[in-house]
Every structure is written in structure tokens, then in C-alpha cells.
Amino acid sequence: MWALGAWVLLGAVGAGSAQLQFSAVKSVEQTMCNKTVILPCIVTNLVQKNIKDMFVKWKLEKKEFFSFDGNTEKTIRNNNFSSAVLESVQNLNLGIASLTISKTQAVPGNYSCEVTESNREGETVIELVYRVEPWFPQVESILIILSLVLAILLYWIQLGVTVSKETTSWGKIGLIIAGIILSVVAAVGFILLVPDGFEPKNQAGLGLIVLPAVILVPLQYFLLKIAFKNNLPVYKILVVVLESVGYLIAVIGFALCITACPSKNGAVVIAGLAIMALTAVVGLIYVSHLGFSKKDQPPRKAVEEPFNDSKGVMLE
Ligand SMILES: *[C@@H]1O[C@H](CO)[C@@H](O)[C@H](O)[C@H]1NC(C)=O
Ligand SMILES: *[C@@H]1O[C@H](CO)[C@@H](O)[C@H](O)[C@H]1NC(C)=O
Fold it and tell me: Residue 87 is part of a domain; what is its CATH number?
């Protein structure tokens, strides 16, 4: 009787330990930045701790796509999961049966990991969740867009002031066309950059925002040149130099960001574009207050009588 009780008790313990147990991760998240995905599967109560006695199976929605036989160290995989490998075969005897899959093959869903050790076995289910998120934090994309919009807007205002004051200026059409091209390209860039994700279109968007902004540098130079009637004082060239520095910083930021996921250097792009916008403010001050007043007529008169002003140019 007493012996029977002990036997039943032992039997119960034995039955309990015939079941392998797992660490309790129920789901993992994958974002667009994961190049590979690790599905965790960790057995916590292995006894033999010998790979030769172990067998691992992975299933997606009940369909087996991967198996590893510890005895022969042979792996069998379904074609759709050709990238799947055990995260660490040498640690399988410690219970680590986690699976690594490439980003493109890791479809979201419920994966089950089935581990056998001799006559003991167990199964755990891990849900792989795909979380879509923006490449840049929202504040950063807003600031990137805002600084370029500001830089372009200030260009248009400078151009407007120049056109209203300077009737004879050559190349106005060219300046307008360049401005239109830049504005359209930037708008396309905004549309491509903003949606969530880290895809070629988002990268192209950032490229279209940053790289063509170089046009603003010569445009600023021409605007000042018109405003100062070709006698551009050397220290005003500094505006153009500063604008080039801003562009350079923006391009460095672009280079740092373009392949980085998650992006960490959006601030550099913002700083570069913001410097370009700020120099455009200085350019606007020069163009509207100083430039045209270098002539005999005060600027107010120049606005009212553009014809006289232009005559003054021609006399020169
Ligand atoms: C994706 O990457 C993040 C950050 O590196 C990591 O914490 C997470 O576990 C990864 N997700 C998967 C499913 O591997
Ligand atoms: C995975 O299983 C959970 C719980 O059974 C369920 O709520 C969820 O919808 C499943 N996920 C997928 C992608 O089928």
C-alpha cells in the first residue's frame, strides 16, 4: 500500500517531466528594420542535454517547414524557408531551439516549435507580429520638410522682390524655371518620404528632398548678383558660402541616413536644410533692403518707378 503510493507519486512526477517546458515568450515583433528575424524557442527542463537525443520541428500554422535531427545533424527545410537556420546549433543541448529567418521569408503568423528529447517532448507557439513604423520619427520628417519648404519659399520671395524691382534683369525665365523644377521635385520627395516603412521609395524621397537642393546655391548667387547689379560685395558672397555649407551638411546627413534603419541622423539633414533656409533669410534681407538701394534712388522710389530704376541700370 505504502509502496504503491510511492509508485503512483513517482509515476505522476515522471509523467510531468515527460513534457518539455518552454520559456514563456508568446509573441515577437518584427519591424521593417529587422534584416533577420529570430523566433525564440527555449526549453527550460532538458535532462540529457545531448544534441544526439534531440529533434526540432518548426511549423507555420500547423504546416511543418523546418526540421533538425540532432542525431544526424541533418536539416530539412521547405523552399519558402530556405533561409531558416537554428540560431545556434551548438547551444541546442542547452535548450535553445530558436530559429533565424531572413526578413523576406518571415511571414507574420503563428509559428510552433516542437522539441523532442528522447521520449519527452513539448510544443510552444510564438506569434510573429509585423509592426509598420515610419523610417524617421514624425517630428523629424516634419522638420525636414518644413526647412526645405522654407528655403524654397524664401527663394520664391527673393525672386518676387527681384522681379518687381528689376525689370531688365536677364535670366529671369531661367530662375523661374529652376524654381519650378526644384519645387516640383521637392514635392515628389515629400510624397515618397512620408509613408511608413523603409523601402526604396522612402529612400528615393529623401534623395529627392536633399540632393536637388544644391540648385538653391547658384540661384541664391544669381539673385544677389542681379540685386547688386553685378557689383557683388565680397562679404555678401558669404551668404552663398554659408548656403553651400548648409547643403554640404544636409548631404552628409543624407549619406548617414540613407542606409540606416532605424535612422539616427535625421537631425543632421534638418540642420543642413535649416542653415540653407536661414541663409535664404539673410539673402532676402540683402535683396530687398540693401541691393537695390545701392543705386541713387532710395528703394521706395525704385518700387514705385521701376522704369526709372531700370533706366539707371542701362545708364550704368
Ligand atoms: C527586430 O529587431 C529588434 C531590434 O534590433 C529586436 O529587438 C527584435 O527582437 C527583432 N525582432 C525579431 C522578431 O527578431
Ligand atoms: C495567432 O493565434 C492567436 C491566438 O490563437 C490569434 O489571436 C491570432 O490571430 C493568430 N495570428 C495569426 C496571424 O493567425
Answer: 2.60.40.10
Beta strands per DSSP E along 98-154: 99-102, 109-117, 120-130
CA gap 3, 35 in Å, rounded: 58
144 and 274 in a single domain? The answer is yes
Query: With a 6 A CB cut-off, is 107 part of the ligand 2 pocket?
Result: no
CA of 130 to the centre of ligand 2 (A): 13
Atom 11, ligand 2: residue with shortest CA distance:
109
What does the alpha-carbon distance between residue 281 and residue 155 come to, in Å, rounded to a whole number?
A: 9
145 and 293: one domain?
yes
Domain coverage including residue 70: 20-131
Domain end marker among 74, 102, 131? 131
Could you tell me the distance, in angstroms and rounded to a whole number, from the CA of residue 33 to the centre of ligand 1? 8
For ligand 2, atom 13: residue with the closest CA: 109
Tell me the per-residue pLDDT of 166-225, one tens digit each, with 9 for 90 and over: 766 567 888 999 999 999 999 999 999 999 989 999 999 999 999 999 999 999 998 888
| pLDDT for the residue 8 | 45
Average pLDDT, the chain: 86
**Where is pLDDT greater, at 236 or 87?**
87
Does the residue 235 lie in any domain? yes
C-alpha cell of 58? 518548426
Residue 174 in contact with ligand 2 by CB distance below 6 A:
no
Contacts of 200 by beta carbon, 8 Å cutoff, 6+ apart? none
58 and 105 belong to one structural domain = yes
From ligand 2's centre to the CA of 136, what distance in Å? 30
pTM for the structure as a whole: 0.74
Specify the number of domains making up the chain: 2
